[in-house]
Amino acid sequence: MDREKIIQALIDWNFWYKSQFTGVLRDYTDKVIQILKEGIVCDLVGVKRSGKSTIFNQVVKKLVEEGVNPFLTLIINFEDPRLAEINDGKKLFDLLNVYKEETGVKGKPYIFLDEVQRVKGWEGFVRSLIDRKEAFISVSGSTSKVNKGRVKEVLAGRHISLEVLPFSFKEFLNFKGVKIERQLDAIARSSEIKSLFQEYLKFGGFPMVVNSDVKEKVLLQLYDDIISKDVIEECSIKRSDKLRSLALFYISNVGNRVSLRRVSRALEIPLRTVERFTACIENSMLIHFVRPLSPSLSQMVKGERKVYSVDTGLSNVVGYRLNQNLGSLLENLVYLELRRRYGGESIYYYHGKNEVDFLILQQNEVTEAYQVTYTLNDEREMKGIREVMKRKKVRAYILTFDDEERIEENGVRIVKIWKWALGF
Which helix (H) or strand (E) holds 163? Predict the structure, then answer.
């Protein structure tokens, strides 16, 4: 181990001698600190460049402001090539010893392992320190492997996962310097907010894209990085051309039901390969699927899943579109906001005689229904909602871009998406 090189890398990433970039404060920061202080491992899991490293910096900054010695915080970023030799659990212990010897600090450190999926057996290292109460630990990763499989077994009962998504619309506005604290603020600045909402819908919420003057180029490069590193390299895929075709198909068809058999025939890829490739793409957290909820058991079991992208900007810029479909982008945006609020496991779509875009299931009860449309101009949107409401009275919403807000006779609320996304 090149001790001097390792120490220099740690100095560069940590708050020991200088401040680090912390960006706009996000909602995750306080949650991470709360979990850490309970003595539980906090996993930050999210697609590449969603802001996990910056959240770690925000957490450390806040801890230091609360009086924690900066040398009792340790950020290890495994994307730094100088740390490439730290590739297994044993070498993690060696690095920890170097840190302790060089800093000479006494006490229980806060350790942040960034992009930890690159280190084989990291979960054993983490469990050892947590069980002996020798450190507070948070880890991050760009693939869902960080909280699945063997990791879940080794850290059972010792960890809590937080999914990090690109900026919400509210975070996007904060980044732009637009503070909206109450509905009156939103009404007063509605023209400005609607204009920014269209930018957010078109280019999404990746922090590096929001801050860029060449948004399309950044999105294209980011997409290629995700596919190359977190899908093809991670899954050791040889037929990368077929993988790229499949990924592009999903990104281009957000809001649509997909059948793997039909995809297999259309793209001329064997079904088993489609299944494997789909799992790899989903594991990178580039796409998400929503299952059907239906009165018919066969529909529940055999029903096609709907696909959504982790960011509307990726679908809009990378996906192929014969015409601009704002409705599907709006639906994708609503899905992501529901995922932030309720988690992916609570979201379904309704498939009966008619369809409803989203149902929220909590404690085995449907509690909310959402239909998404650019403008309310036909009966399709109401038919599905009425069918659900006949079965169970739930809070029901039709979300539109800018239709007049009102409450229908059956209690269905017509709400503007840009206001709903802000929590109003």
Answer: strand 159-163
151 pLDDT exceeds 80?
Answer: no
Same domain assignment for residues 48 and 129: yes
Under the banding of pLDDT at 50, 70 and 90, the label for residue 301 is low
More confident residue, 320 or 311: 311
Where residue 24 sits, what CATH number does that domain have? 3.40.50.300
pLDDT of 152 > 80? The answer is: no
Q: Position 342: which residue type?
A: Y
Give the full edge-to-edge strand order of the sheet including 413-416. 257-258, 305-309, 287-293, 347-351, 355-362, 365-372, 395-400, 413-416, 406-407
For the chain, the residue count is 424
pTM of the full structure: 0.94
Cβ atoms of residues 361 and 293 within 8 Å: yes
Residues 217 and 81 in one domain: no
Q: What is the pLDDT of residues 247-275, one digit of tens each?
A: 999 999 999 999 999 999 999 999 999 99
Same domain, 181 and 46: no
Instruction: Check residue 298 and give its pLDDT.
Output: 59
Decide the pairing of beta strands 257-258 and 305-309: antiparallel
Domain that holds residue 81: 3-163
Domain boundary among 163, 192, 209: 163
Q: Are residues 147 and 208 in the same domain?
A: no
Bin 423: left if φ > 0, else alpha if -120 < ψ < 50, else beta.
left
397 close to 369: Cβ distance less than 8 angstroms: yes
Question: Edge-to-edge strands of the sheet including 41-45?
Answer: 73-77, 110-114, 136-141, 41-45, 159-163
**All residues at 6 or more sequence positions from 123 whose CB lies less than 8 Å from its CB, including other chains:** 89, 150, 151, 154, 155
- CA 357, 363, 366, 370 torsion-angle sign: negative
Judge if 128 and 175 occupy the same domain. Answer: no
Which two tokens mark 308? 């959504």
pLDDT above 60 for 323: no
